[in-house]
Each structure stands twice: as structure tokens, then as C-alpha cells.
Amino acid sequence: MIERNRVVLSKLIIIFVLLLPVGIYAQVSNYISNVEVLNSKEGEPLTVKADLFQVAAVNRILFYYKLFGETEFTEQEMSLFGAAASTTVSGEKIAPPFIEYFLRVELKDGTYEAYPIGAPNEAAALQVSIQPVSEKDRQIIVLSPTPHESVSLNDLFISISLLRVPPSIDNSATKVFVDDNDVTQMVLFADDLLLFYPENFPGTIGEGNHVLRVEIYDIEGNFYHSITTDFNVFAEKGVGIYAHTFNTFFDLKGESRNERFNDEETWYNNFDGKFRGNYRDWNFNARLFITSEEKQYLQPQNRYFGEVSNDWMFLKFGDNFPRYQELLLDGKRLRGVTGGVKIDFFNVQASYGQINRSVEGRLLSTFSATQAFEDSLILYPNVIKIDETTYGNVNYGTYGRNLFALSTFAEGSNYKFGISYLHSKDNDESIEYGGKPEENAVFGTELKLSFDRQRIVFENEAAFSIYNRDIRTGSLTEEDIRNLFGDGSLLGTNPDDLIRLKDYLEGIITINQYLGPINPEEFSSLAYESALRLNYFNNNFKVAYLYRGNDYTSFGNNYLRKDIQGFNINDRVRLLDNKAFFSVGYERLTDNLQNTKQATTTFNTFNTSVSIYPRADFPNITLGYTRYDNNNDLPSDSIYAVNNGTNSFLASLSYDLNTGIVHNARLSVSTSSREDETFTNSDAKITTGVLTFNSNWSDEFTSLFSAVYSSSEIAGFKYSYTTITAGGNIKLLENKLNLRLTGGPSFGDLERIAVDLIVDYNILTNFSIGLQSRYYKIKDLSNNSIVGLTARWIM
Amino acid sequence: MKILKIVLLSSLLLAAASVDIKAQHTVDLQVFQPLPEIDLSAFIYTNDISGLPRIMCFLINPKGDQVVLELNIEWQPANGGSFQELLSVVTNPFTARDFCNDEFGSSDISIAQSTSNQTAIEELRRSGRPTGKFRINVNIQGGGDGDSEIIEFSNPAQNFVILTPESGSSHDIGAVLASWEDIAGASSYKVKVAERSSPTQSLDDAIESGNPYVDADVGLVTVANLRTLLQREWVPGQEMVMQIEANIPGPDGGSKLFSNIVNFYLSDLTDGSVKMITLELTELLQLLDDGTGSDLLQDIIDNGVTLLGIRRSDGTPLTADEIMRLLDFLKNNTNTIIDLTVVN
Amino acid sequence: MRMTINLILMLLIMCSTQLIAQNSEEAANSKSVAILNKVVKDVEHQKIQTDDWEEAKRGMTLQDGHSIRTGGRSLALVTFLDKSLLRVRENSIVKIFSSIEGTKQNKNTQIDQGVVNFDVSKQQDEEFKFTTPTGLASIRGTSGYFEVIPDKTWLIVEEGLVEVKALSNGGEVQNVGAGNTAEIDKEGNISIRPTTEDEKAKLNSSKKDKTIKYIIETSEGEYELELFDEN
Fold this sequence. Notes:
Chain A is mainly beta. Chain A contains five helices and 49 strands. In chain A, helix 4 packs across helix 5.
């Protein structure tokens, strides 16, 4: 009897629980009028909605829930929309038999109230029962995304299988909802399979959590069953095209640093902000760098930059670094605009802007013409004529220099052919005290061919320049040309030819007596390079020939080595299943191409290295040797003699020792010895040995020890020292705080004490601050300190 | 043509005869020294030309009288041989005063006649610039003390090369040996060392930094320990760039020759430095024997590309420690890697 | 207006069928039995009665007789309509046979070479078989791993029971229980032994189907590094 009563009671309780309106509650509260719990099914997302009054007083509402058997409530903030708040708990966490929950309303005045009032301590939390998965639930199968899956927007598609539904179901009547939006019309029905590709319907699904609901109906049109599942969509920032929304990424860094060198103190304050964004296939980039090192008397140190690009075009403005043929323009800062368009294989790119900012020179002193001649000042490099009777000594300034470049090329996977043009000119009115304003034009072409899946690559580049060393006087008249050029003139050239060309050339460059080359037939302003790369049998082989005439000039690549020709050949071989690498290279160059020097110097360089990575219980080894040999065969007492040779050796060993604690030991020894056989006798020897020993004691603590010995003798001056450094790195506060302290003395000719303390604190996952504090005391020479604070914020 | 020459010569003689030479004049020639290089245009002598580089001056005494100056230039090619006549110039009479070559052809010191050795001129022109030695002789016509000077042109290389440190090499903070090629004709060298704040910064951009660590004139030596030239302390882990500037004396400020720019690292003995992380990545890529990541490996080895950082797909960057752990994990689980491709 | 919108939507759906899914004509002729739930790197797809391999795309439906081929460091995730899962690992070739009768789906997967991890979600009266060059396996359990070379098949049973039958020499039949590995060679020998630690590691590695991407920032541009993540 008792047993029977118990069964009846149990059934009554179950019926009561099941009949509870899946949660419509009305609790007494000053702020919440009603709370509704939707869809309390095992494994399915559970949504809680709250209706509010006195919304203006509410700061935020937190939802606390606890699964059966858990001891602590989990907190989740609700979203506020007008007079309602809602949140969804992932289905992953929803399991029978029930969950307990309460709400906490936080008010703007800093106080709070729970719902139900007093929960969970003075009043009981609410409960909602969770229905277990039923047979009907198993009939609707969501194949993708899997329940609670986090999937990138690029990879998202929804597929639903109706394989298991009974024959009484009308598959074509199925309805699909995403976040309560009916997307059925966008769904492809393929027999038992329903497919929805959001990328074909931009804007339907964005980043964040989403709820998928599938409703099926029988052939009579009656609702049969529905299932709900949830998934999360994330955008891959900076990875491909990932969304139909505008995605942004900010990286902001600020630094304030004080450097003290004896009594001299300097503050450095920098701000560096970077922005990346994209919308569909449009990408946006921007950078703003502001530094206290910006000075009117220097070239710009601040940087600003913006870029818009997609598959077929780009536009950069501000401080950009356009890349054209290497002989023309490569890595030079240009403050201006660079843009390009790509249509199939055809490309056009152009740049215009300033590469040098004008910096005014200074007039240091003036003196009379008489004094200039009498005191022999007249031929000093920095003396200028101010007027007929006055001369002055100046510090020359820098002219503002503009540059224009244009390139057009055809490019495919196995070829590239292009032509380029560059023009650059000083603005001679930009400053008062300057040297010689100059002008330059360069014409270039390039050809690249590759065969056998890029295993054979043939690259060629050539450029021809014209260069005017002084454009102050402007272009010559026809009369001037007849006067200056022709037979018997040092400048050569048939004046009639030049006059004929003048109309065309003047559009490119100023024509006067300073225009070069005057000996184009000698290829003095021609530069070309040709290289062949072969990649076979684990060999990376390259042979190249280069020629750069002594007058070749491009303002877009000022530091190119000129007056040189020769070849280089090198090979890198992978051996023993990538466990060993062997490389060898040789270069032979000569100068004096146009016979302008007293002698021709030959520059020979040979280098070789071998690296071994045994991947076993044996050290990684690298050995290297380089030999430079430069000689022009002039007698050693000649002031033009070049005769020196340098030998450099490097040996390094690295070994990981795992004894439960991972230790890494590295030993490297390098030595360089230069013998100068000329009268200047600039001999130099330097030998350095470094031993380091790093130990990872735990995930949180690592230590290091190092010893450095260096000995040098440069032109008879000896300098040797030994440095011992010890320190450690420790992580605290759940790895959010990283402290690194190192320090140690140096002995010998460098008597120094160094202490470095570096602190990084990741306050939030996207916000960190760093402190560097360094102190160096060099005996009898200097006391230095560097203290800096940086902050970085990523959004 | 012959008639024209006769007329010219006659008028010259007449002009010379009309010059009232009251006293013995002396001319003192001063030339720009040293002058390793100059344009050929510096030796153009024609009327109505302006803006010539000032490379020689003539101090004539006594002043005030009418004089005629004869200028004769001989040339000895760079590969030796004897001096040969290059060109000679005779001025019209002018009032004796001090002046320089940039006033030749002006209204008061106009050129009456100039002759040249066509063969020598053509040979020089093919060089594109003055080479070898130029002997300059000046005289006052009709008697007086002349003067003579020689200018030798070494025509230094237009750019030169840093031998050490090698690009991408690492050095202890006290042991960076800087050495570079000799430049014949340089009057001094200046060493400039600046920090490269980020590996994406171009070397040109980095060397222009406002506050260099070394900016020192070292005279004519071509080797130096950078430690001894530091203006402020550098710190381990930094990437530095170095360039040498050779000063070539000449008019209008002379000229500067620049070496290539090299980058090098100051050894950071702890993990996490750019150099160490790049090394770790290199070792990882070398373990991938199916060609995955070979583009990046080649860039690192051949082009000195360095690793700046790694960020997750949500854009947040990995810390140096996380990067080292990730790379270490991947070295032991290379089959986890699917692909490594260039992002366009 | 509404009609027009519906028409446009219909057109879009048709386009998506063409572009993303597959040839609709073929779809009309044959039932879809599985979808390609994930495609990592180089995956190709071959329809029936053709020798051409075409690039496979995520979301593509597969029909009876279709084949999948993967390249190095690649993965294809095949999900049958009953939610059974095949993880076709790198350098593998598989052919899918399946028939649907009412609410039942019988499946036979032919593995020509490579590694396939399986996770079965079948009903009592459904068949799930694998055919390899050396053996035939009837899955009675839930999960495991095949590694196939022309001369040999390794089967690791993680959960449940698998009946294996050698294809030569009389067709020996044995049952392989959870925690065991079976080796079936071309001579028709079947040897069964406990799964080794190395094999367990392989099994676990074969389950990885989540991918994660990192961007490597270098001084000369950015590289995308894609990895199989821990599941």
C-alpha cells in the first residue's frame, strides 16, 4: 500500500513538474515584472527573458544558474533591450533533472536586488525542470554545425538530416529558424537533407551565439516536433575574407621612456596606433606613429599611413614604402600616394610624394670678398657667395625632394615582364642655404620566367639613369647648347641632336651642362642583373651576374653599390632528411668600370657553413667560415692602395637536456681577423665566446646564466672583457604577470655593472602594460639608466 | 675658316697691344684640395655661362690694371703616361683683381680664345669625369709670374660596402666590430648606428632615426669597436642598423658617399628575442620535409626575414613565451601543421 | 513584389546549388547520402562513372559511389545522414557506397589507401561496412581507425566490436574487441593483439578535425599557419 502510494505520489509530482508552465513565474520584485524560461530541454539552449519596470534605475542584470549536483552558481550577464532583458545558456550545460536560477538586478546607485528578493540566501532560488532527450528529438539530426560548436563565419553552413523522421512527415513543410528568423526560403531541400549556406545570403548570420530551430510537420500540416540547438560564430580577424560585416582590429601602443646618460636626461614619448579592418573583400590598414623625436631639423620621424585594397586594386597614402624594381625604388619612405590596379595579368602601379623634407640650412658667419681671398677661405667647401662683396660660411640644408614612379607589368604564375619609370627632383626654392639641387630620371625593365613548377627561375632586371647634378641654372637655351656642346667640348654630343631632343627631354629632366651621363656609349649609367635559380635534388642553387655603371643613379635607391661588376654563385643543400644544411658561396666583383680610378680593385668573398640538426640526443651544430679579399695591386705605400683580407669563423652548439627539467645550453665562438697590408695598417682581430644555460624549472619559472668573453685588437688598440649574467623569469597571477630580472658584472677593459628588470602585466587579455628598468654603470665613464613604461591595448 | 682665325688673331694682338701694362703682375693660383672628384663641366670655359663649381681661384697683384690671363690645362691619364695638353684659354683684357673660375665667361672676364686637344678631350669624355692628374698653369700675358698646381682625381667608388658586422648577425653588446672598405679620396668617415624599431621598418627608414646610438666622425680609420663610440647605452635584444658615410671634399659642400646599410642584433641571452624566435621558427620549418613553409624558410635564410610576432585568428597577439611554447609544440608535432601560406 | 523576392531567392538557391553543392542534375537522379562537413587543404571528389577528380568543397553532398581523395596534410570530414562520421586523413582514397531505405541507411566504405577514423551512429538493424584491399569489416561498435596500404590493413577498435574477414585464402573471420588492433595481410592472415601506445597516439591524432589558424607576422609580410587543434 505504501509502495503504491509512493508510486502515485511520484507520478503526481512528475505530472506537476511537467505541467509547470515551462516557466512562467510571477515574483514580487521592484524591478522585474515577469521572468520566462524558454525551451528547457536536455542539450538544447535555454533562454531566459525578463520584463522590467523602472528600467532607468537599472545598471545591469546578472543571471545566475546552477545545475543539479553543482554547489556554486554560474554568473552570466543578460542583454538589455528597452524594458526587457534576456540571455541564453548554451545547450552544452543543460541537463536533467533541473537547474536552479535567480537574477540579480544591479542599480545605478550601486545597490542591488535579487529576483526572487533575497535569493539565494534568504529566499530559495527558482527551479526549472529539464526534459530529457526524447525519441522525437532523435529524429531530427543536425549534421552541422554540431551542437554548441564554435565555427568561423567562413566555414559555417547548416545541414539537417531528416533520415529518421517517420513516413508521416512532410519533409517539404519543414521550417528552419535562426534566432527566431525564418530562413526556410533560403534552405535547399535535397531529399532527406536540408542545406543552408549563409554565405549566399549575406547578413543573415553574423558573429556571436545563435540558436537554430527546426520544426517538422506531418502530411496533414500539423506541427509534429521541433528541436533547438545552438552554435557560435566567430570572425577570423586578419584571416582571409570572413564576413559580410565590417571587421576591425586596433592595436594601440604608448611608451614613455627616460634615458639618463651621466647628467644628460632624455625623454622619449611615443604613440603607435595600428588599425586593420575589412568588409567583404575590402581591406583597410592605417597607422599613426607620433614621437617626441620629431624635430624640424631632421627628416620626419612621425609616421601616418592609410591603405585601402582589394583583389584588384590598392591605394596607400601617407608614409608608405613603395616597391618597384630593386634598381629603381625599394624600401624608401615616400610621404604621398601609391596606388595600383590589377586586371587579370595586367598591372599598373604609380607613386607620387616627397622623399626628403626640406630642412633649412644655417648661415654661420659672413665675411668680405677681400677677406675670403686673403684668408684662403674662398675654396672652403661650405663657403658661398652671398653678393658681389660678401661671402658666408654655411651649414647646408636639405632640399625638399619629390618622387614620381610608374610601373606597368604583366604577371602570371610563371612569368613577369614590366617596365618602370622614376623621376625625382629637388625643389631648389624649398630652402635658402642649400648645396646643389639635383634631378634624376630612371627607366627600367624586368623579366622573370620560371619553369618546372618554379624549380627553374630566371630573373633579369635592367635600368638606365640620367642624372643632373645641379639644376640651379635651369635648362639651357639653344644658343647655350651650341656654345657648350659639340666637337672640342668636354661634354661632347652633337648640339643639333640635343636641340632636337630638347623638347622631349625637357619634360623629363633639366638640360644643362650638369646632365649626365655624357658617355652613355660606355654604359656608365646602366645597371643590370641577371640571376638563375635552380631548385633540384635538395639544392637551392643560384648564379647571378651584375653590372652597375659608375654613374648609375636612382634617388629611389641611394645606397646601391655602384661602379661594380661581377658574379656570385651559391648553393644551399639539404642533406640527411633535412637534418643537415650545407651552404657555399663565392662572389667576385671588380670596380673601375669606366677607368676613372688609379687602379681596379677586385673584391673576393667566399663563405661556407654547415648546420646539423640531429633531432636526437645530440647538440645542434653550426659551423661557418667567411673570407673577404680586396686588392687593387697598387704598391702598399700608395695612398690609393687597397690590400686587405679578413677571415671570420663561427662555431655554435646548442643542446637541449631534458631531465624532467628542460635545460638548454648554447655555446658559440666567433673570431674575425683582418690583415691590412697597406700603409694605413688597419688590422683588426676580435674573438668572442658566449656560453648560455637556460633552464625551464616549471611553466612559471625559468633561469638563465651566461658568460661572454671578448677580446679585440683594432689598429693596435686592445680591448678585452668578460661578462657574467644571471637571472630568471617568473610568472605570477595566473601567468598574467611576468617578471624578468637579469644582471651581472663585466670585467677587464669594460668594467660595467648591468641590472635589467622587465615587467609585463596582462591586466586583461587585450590590455597589457610593461615596465623596463635598466641600470648600467661603467666605471670612470658613465652612469646610465633607462626607465620606460609601455601600454598596449588591442581591440 | 682660315680668314676667321687670322681676323681673330689680329684682333687679339691688337687688343694685347692696347693693354697698358704698367707693372709686372703676379698671379697666385689656389685650387680646391683635396678634390677627389668633380664634373667635367668644372673645366668648361665659355662666355655667358654661370653656376660653374668653384675649384680654383686666381689672386692677381697688383690690382686695378688691365691684364690678360692665360690658362693652360695639361692632363695625365689615371693609368700613367706623360702630361699632354688638354685645353688653353686666353681672356680678353680685364681689370686685375682676385677671382675664381666660376667668374670665367662673365661680362668683365670674358674669354677671347680657347683651344683644345681633341683626342685627349674625347678620351676624357669617355671616362665621363675628370680622371688622373690635371696640371693647371696660369700666366699673365706679356710677362709676370705665373703659377702652377696639380689636382689629382681619385674618383672614389660611388658607394661602398660594410664588411662587418654582417647583415643579420648577432653580437654581444661589447663586441661589435665595424669595418668597411677604404675609399680613396675620403677625407673622413662618419659611423652612424640607430635602432630598427621593428623588422618591418625599412633599413633606410631606420637609419634616419632622430636619435642615433652612434653618430661619430672617426677620421680615416676603417675599423672600429662600436662599443667605444656609443653615445648612449644600447640593450640586449635590440636590432640595430649601421651605415658609414665618407666625406668627399669639394665645392658646394663637397659630397657624401654612403655605404650600404646593414642590420645586426645585440644578443639577448634569454628566449623571446626576435632573433631567438626566428631561429626557433627556422628549426621548425627545417623539420617539414614536404615543402610546407618552404617559401618562408627561404625568405628567412636567403633574405634575412625575421619573425615579428604571431597572432591568433581573433587578432590577439601571442606573448613571446606563448610563441616559444607554440613553436616548441609544433617541433614535436609537425604532423599537426596543415599549411603555411603567404597572406596576400 | 513578394513574388519577385521569392523568385530572386529561388534563383539564389539554385545558384548556391550550382556553386557550392553540386550538379543539380545529378542530385535529381541520386539521393544524397552524406555531406562533406569539412575540407582541409587538398581534397578532391570524384563522381560516379567518371575518371575526373574535381576540387571538393565544404558543404558538398555525396552520393552513392562517390569517391574522396586527400592530399598531404589534408582532411575530409564526411558525415552520413545518420550522423556517422568518417575522418579521411591525408593521402587517402575512399569510395562511399550507401543505400537509404525508409529511415535506414546502410553504408559500405571502400578504403583504397590511407587513414580513416570512424565514429558510427547507427541503429541496430543497419549495416556499416568497410572494405579494404585485404579485408572486410562489419562495424558493430562505435569508433575506431583504419590504416590501409595495398598489402595490409590495420584496424584499431576503440569502442564496441568489429567483425573482420580476410579477402583471400578462404576468408578467415574474426571479431576484434575494443582496445585491440587487427592486422589483415594480403595472404589472408588476421592477427589480433592489444593496441600499443604508439597506435593509441595515432588513433587520437586521427580524431583531430578542428583547425586553428595563426597569422605569422614577418618583416616581409604575413603568413597564415593552419593547424589541427586539440579537439
